Recover the amino acids of this structure.
């Protein structure tokens, strides 16, 4: 009987240890993401930087996806893997599509509302992943 109690206790302890290790690997709250996000928000105040703001926001999301160990060769594939983690998956996909548009098309006109909406979606996605 005592052996059974010890085994059960050991099993519970092992599960707690595994849970803590898993959380520490997935937990992305870090000064790096907070600092980079502040830099991006500061850059967004300058209209000449808007294209770079969108690109940098997407790169920061991709870094969080990689560190969270979502599978995929591209940011889009990793976003598919993480789709359930996002509270507004459609919104982050719209932001990512805007990134693709500014990178692959010439003469894309951005407006303040485009930047504000995209930054809001990137910020929320980073929060959803635990990076902010």
């Amino acid at each position: 009987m005592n052996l059974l109690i010890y085994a059960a206790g050991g099993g519970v302890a092992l599960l707690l240890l595994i849970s803590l290790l898993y959380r520490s690997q997935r937990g992305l709250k870090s000064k790096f993401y907070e600092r980079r996000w502040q830099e991006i928000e500061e850059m967004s105040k300058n209209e000449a930087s808007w294209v770079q703001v969108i690109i940098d926001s997407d790169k920061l999301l991709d870094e969080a996806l990689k560190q969270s160990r979502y599978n995929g060769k591209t940011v889009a594939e990793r976003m598919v893997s993480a789709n359930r983690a996002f509270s507004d998956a459609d919104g982050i996909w719209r932001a990512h599509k805007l990134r693709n548009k500014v990178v692959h098309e010439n003469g894309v006109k951005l407006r303040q509302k485009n930047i504000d909406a995209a930054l809001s979606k990137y910020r929320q996605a980073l929060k959803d992943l635990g990076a902010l």
